[in-house]
Amino acid sequence: MKRIGVVFGGTSSEYEVSLKSTVAVLKALESLPYEVMMIGITKEGNWLWYQESVSLIENDTWFLEASCVPLSFDFTGQGFVNKATNQGVLVDIVFPVLHGGDGENGAIQGLFEMMNLAFVGCGVSASSISMNKMLLHEFAKTVGVKSTPSLLINTKKITKEVEIFINEAGFPLFVKPNEAGSSKGISKVESEAELEKALEEAFKFDSKVILQKEVVGIEIGCSVLGNEDLTVGACDQVNLAQGFFDYEEKYNLITAGIQVPSIIDITLQQEIKEQAQRLYKALGCSGLARIDFFLTTDNQILLNEINTMPGFTDHSRYPMMMKEIGLSFEQIIEALIKLGVERHGAKLSKASESN
């Protein structure tokens, strides 16, 4: 029986989102033939082997348990090290249920690569490019995927470059941290008078910020599963009664509704799916990703962002899109584990061939 190390928590601003996703993943794993090891990362960055009830993860008191064992890392492909006994703690594959920050920007993936461990999800380069909004948009252009007009800035000052962009794009604008997920730090700006406050907020989450022209249209999501052979879920669409799809809307759906499947024209859905797969393969994504687009009022398809570890409760967008094509939550989890093992096996084979 394979042993799965489910990693949760983390130091990013999406710590709470990770806990919600993790509870759903752990409950799904109860019906699958795997031994589960729960590995929590505190907000301070401490790695702990957690061995108690899932309910304590749900209410975020898990790290208070005296039974938590501090962990360090083994770099020989075995897994982790119990810091109290200095003994190895073996795992066959790691499932990092981590959102935003180091969980999605390639850092944690790089650690697992150095540890020579199989893991679920995209590798270092696909994760890091996808997390960097401006870099992702520039990359997308090289494979014929259009994105929204944006400007990358690293200062709160209204520079000449910013003024030129505002004159060309007009208001309203969106101000976004370049590397942050779940719409953290994003503001909609209606005038230059509001820009200073929006920049202040965005710079709390990143040292680089993008200004982005507002797109009049709807957001369409596309879920992709696989390494080489891809499975694409049904498209969904975000229906907003007001405002924009910010953090509160994403997780509480106060005025927004998620429609699965989308009701846009089938031809447009097929084009979105084709662009999603093209970008997924070009980036070298593996395991999974949710790729979000804007569809403008004149039917232009523009890339918004890629989530390489999207929200993972059983009612999150990614699982719901896959459910629409007949894949249960448990089937998705099992497929992701197998894909992670497969990817790691292919990596080891290439390494042995080159020696």
TrEMBL record:
Pfam family, one: Dala_Dala_lig_N
Record domain ATP-grasp: where: 137-338
Keyword Lyase: no
Catalyzed chemical reaction(s): 2 D-alanine + ATP = D-alanyl-D-alanine + ADP + phosphate + H(+)
Signal peptide coordinates: none
Annotated InterPro entries: ATP-grasp, ATP_grasp_subdomain_1, D-Ala_lig_Van_CS, D_ala_D_ala, Dala_Dala_lig_C, Dala_Dala_lig_N, PreATP-grasp_dom_sf, VanC1/2
Annotated Mg(2+) 2 binding sites: E305, N307
GO cellular component: cytosol
Keywords tagged on the record: ATP-binding, Cell shape, Cell wall biogenesis/degradation, Cytoplasm, Ligase, Magnesium, Manganese, Metal-binding, Nucleotide-binding, Peptidoglycan synthesis
One example GO MF annotation: D-alanine-D-alanine ligase activity
Cofactor note: Binds 2 magnesium or manganese ions per subunit.
Coarse class of the protein's main subcellular location: cytoplasm
Compartmental location: Cytoplasm
Cofactor(s) the record lists: Mg(2+); Mn(2+)
Annotated active site: E14, S182, S316
Keyword Disulfide bond: no
Top-level taxon of origin: Bacteria
Any single GO BP term: peptidoglycan biosynthetic process
Main enzyme class: ligase
Positions contributing to Mg(2+) 1 binding: D292, E305
Pathway: Cell wall biogenesis; peptidoglycan biosynthesis
EC code: 6.3.2.4
Functional description taken from the UniProt entry: Cell wall formation.
Annotated family: Belongs to the D-alanine--D-alanine ligase family.
Identification of the protein by name: D-alanine--D-alanine ligase
Gene: vanC
